[in-house]
Each structure stands twice: as C-alpha cells, then as structure tokens.
Amino acid sequence: MELLNVIVAAAGAFGFGAFWYMRMSKPWIAASGVAVDAQGNPVNAGPMPFVVGIVAMLLVAGMMRHVLATSGIVSLGGGLVAGAGIGAFLITPWVAMNYAFAQRPAALTLIDGVNAVVGCAIMGLILVLF
Q: What's the pTM value of the predicted model, to 2 decimals?
C-alpha cells in the first residue's frame, strides 16, 4: 500500500508539472536557453528528461512519505503545509543556488520553484489521503 501511495503522489506531482510547463513553455524556453527548432519548440531530447523526471518524482515522494510518517503528519492541512514547505524551503533554494552559479535568469528559478512548491504540496496531500 505504501508503494502505491508513493507512486500516486509522484504521478500527481508529475501531472501538475506537465500542466505547469505547458502553460509556462514560452517563458521557460526563454529563461532556460534550451535549443529550439525553427518553430520555436524545444529540440527533441528524446525520452531521457521524462525518465529522469519520473524517477526524481518517485524519489521525492518516497522520502516525503517517510518524513510525513515519522513526523506524525496525517491531516490534509498538515500534508499540504509540509509538502509546500519542502518545496519552498528545501528544493527551491537549492535550485536557486545552482541556477545562480550557472548564471541562469531569476525567472527560471521562479518558474521551476513554483513547480517544486505546488508539486510537493500535491504530494503531501496525496500521501496523507491513503
């Protein structure tokens, strides 16, 4: 049951990421500097970014399940706040530091940070539901 819980939480966050980046594709492309084709769409990098994304979501959801369980967080509000806090105060600052050293625009940190905060909040909600 715990494995299913982690998989569903990872899928929820991954699904939000798909929604978010479809809406933010143009600003993200501009901020990231990713290579684009003649139509302005990212050059196909194959399936590897999606594989890495799914594995990353599974790892985050698995660790978040452990953190929530050992902290005794079982309410929807607790899962939401803990998840959002993990995204806002653990993941986003680390991404911001990496982007600062890579001399990436602050807009990239903002776009990716929203994904981390909302995605982790979704994970927290799902993890306390089961």
A: 0.94
